[in-house]
């Protein structure tokens, strides 16, 4: 081998392959998915396996007086009943290990696992689970986060230092109270959101066994194999290396597979019983068993100066954490930080808290606190624009973040601020597509909305009994910001190993990186990044990603971070391997690189000062709706969704993330109404929990992709997968307001809520539509 | 529980077995025949992940008892095209990015194929109506509709199942 650079050696090679960065080749994994050959966790089996069935609490808060396994053990086929006493170290959790694998003395939510039945057949396991006799003494249920902190309220987790207060965040800059006192116009409102269920189509399942060498293998689905390994190993009291997590085909995740569910049960049974085991949850177990998106209550006061600049914001957020921590601390920090959205606000006083209750635990869900926070922020921005007679686009243009602006935490934003660019692209496209919209150039202050395409101008809501009954169209726009990558000092890194093979030239490569493809297509994106760097065809780049023992740790498939962080690790490992290639005559070289993005810091506990994030994504969405005042039904007719992705590694995959994210956001805004009462889940099946169908989603979802290069991402790419969830809810609220004149503040916007709002609208509407220079409160509308 | 004999033609092969009368078709296909391409999503008839074709009609196999299929023909995703080939609908879903996690895909493909036999040139609204009973949580349906449209066009042009190997 000579000392030529790869570039020189390539001089006589064929032209660069086609399937590289910026193209959208068909996904290699999709072939097995269209033929039915792909194996999801529920499709797996091992010779001689036992079937597991978890006994769920079925009650929100109770003391366990006794567990009698004898009736179950007497049932033919039942082999064992495992309880808390069988778990070597009965605690786990993503951030804080406050959750038992099997309940120990008390159950704190309906989905808590109490016992685990192992049997020779699935039927025997199911029957055995029904025969386990658990004696409970019910305890008072903490179901309302608003009263969970009141003195005398029972404690969900006794012994915690702050009672039912799981976490509290304060971010202060300038003098918010003074700024609001001196502002020309101040608005105040309260917003509420409910739980959202991920509803990934493939319920939790998996198999586990113990290898001859003593390693416990759990084959399942998840979002971070290496952290699943850490948590599972900890519950068994084993070193990490003695546990192997393998991912089968993953049937969707959306944050709902970040927390462990079936994995520690599978590992426990395999390890204890020394037999292969299989566990498949049904839909109701899934609905009860994994954390949801946080319900939040947000009270916000925003004030603007006479020149239309936002002067100050006070906001207060309470999130229902449910019975265990999950990722609530992190979600509430993220949500609190984003209570001012993507706006420059010199004076802020932001306060967030997460409260323990006996409701289902809440954790990660695509958006991670950003959708709730910006429902409030963007609604306030829209109302302020209206209150001062300003155009909703122009008002945003004046106030959105610019490059170099300070965050509420007092430090400059990371470079690459695409807030204004995404808004302007979105507004222009919305005007072209919908034929209506905003001129963005300063409509005459106080002018009413332009006539709608659908027909006549919007009458005053609730004042015209006949006109009110006709469906009316409206358009709304909103912006969004979301951190990409981990925040607040959480260790952020990804490691990739690249192996090159060939004689003379590099002929093929293997990339090892433990990154979970939950359906988003990141495995193809990582291969494209490697193929591009190596100038190899895609088929010559193999990827090993689904085994914690065979690939290094990439971190989680969350925070829209894998393309950005894992992609950069692959990019750098490719460069490192390529640099070694000319230096050796070996037919194989290998390089391992750990990429660490710029550091973030925890926030100062008093002031909230710090560097919360190293990268943000920006988006803007415009939505056209039709509201039927007679029924309260809202239909989404069209969506423009603008995203700054840095660089589109695989454009079609990005469009797929936009379209799918919009559909989830549409469900969140209009349909998905996860309900609990006194700690019991009322929406236990998809009969009760409505998900968007092909007919609920508009024909027209227009993804607009902007490419402002990120300084850190591979080829300038940044993440984007969560952003479609962020502006949508307030954009729909604005569109409904545009159509029928009422502001909705409680998510989801069900027909009942729309009708109630219309019934109440004269008062509400008057308060909103007649701004007073002093405080005008429309709280509770 | 007592079992009853049942004979069902599955993917062209007659299968005779004993099932409990309560056994749903989806469990017969998955557990007894090992046809795991038929997925279980919701178990209450909403999601359509378990869609198969019964005498050519798309049905949700979690809503059908095995004994109801007695004497009838069932087609699952594994039997849509001859072994080693891709049906044009499968090819279109693959090439048009008509899936992400893929869990809904077998049901979507079978629903779409049944539609195209009834209506070889459906408009988008007809396609959306046809797949309304098949939930997808990943794609937002745009690429699914696009895949069905492309499949319709290719089938109108005479596309036939084509070998898998050439495409991988």
Give the arrangement of secondary structure elements:
The complex is a heterodimer of chains A (781) and B (168).
Chain A: H1 6-9, H2 30-35, E1 50-56, E2 62-68, H3 70-73, E3 78-82, E4 106-107, E5 113-119, H4 122-131, E6 133-138, E7 165-173, H5 176-181, E8 185-192, E9 205-210, E10 216-220, H6 225-236, E11 243-247, H7 263-273, E12 277-280, H8 283-289, E13 296-304, E14 310-322, H9 328-337, E15 347-356, H10 370-387, H11 392-399, H12 419-434, E16 472-483, E17 494-501, E18 508-512, H13 522-534, E19 541-544, H14 562-580, E20 588-595, E21 616-628, E22 633-644, H15 651-671, E23 676-677, E24 680-681, E25 700-706, H16 728-740, H17 751-759, H18 761-769, E26 775-777
Parallel strand pairs in A: 1-12, 8-26, 10-11, 14-15, 18-19, 22-25
Antiparallel strand pairs in A: 1-5, 2-4, 2-6, 3-5, 7-15, 8-13, 9-10, 9-12, 13-14, 16-21, 17-18, 17-20, 21-22, 23-24
Chain B: E1 4-10, E2 13-19, H1 25-32, E3 51-54, E4 57-60, E5 73-75, E6 85-86, H2 88-95, H3 105-118, H4 124-130, H5 142-156, E7 162-163
Parallel strand pairs in B: 1-5
Antiparallel strand pairs in B: 1-2, 3-4, 3-5, 6-7
Helix pairs in contact in B: 2-5
Structure description:
The complex is a heterodimer of chains A (781) and B (168). Chain A is α+β, with helices and mostly antiparallel strands and 781 residues long. Chain A has 3 domains: 48-139 and 204-280, Aldehyde Oxidoreductase, domain 3; 296-486 and 606-777, Aldehyde Oxidoreductase, domain 4, CATH 3.30.365.10; 493-595, Aldehyde oxidase/xanthine dehydrogenase, molybdopterin binding domain (Aldehyde Oxidoreductase, domain 4, 2-Layer Sandwich), CATH 3.30.365.10. The N and C termini of chain A lie far apart (75 Å). In chain B, 31% of the residues lie in helices and 17% in strands. Chain B is built from 5 helices and 7 strands, in the order E-E-H-E-E-E-E-H-H-H-H-E. In chain B, helix 2 (88-95) crosses helix 5. The radius of gyration of chain B is 16 Å and the shape is globular.
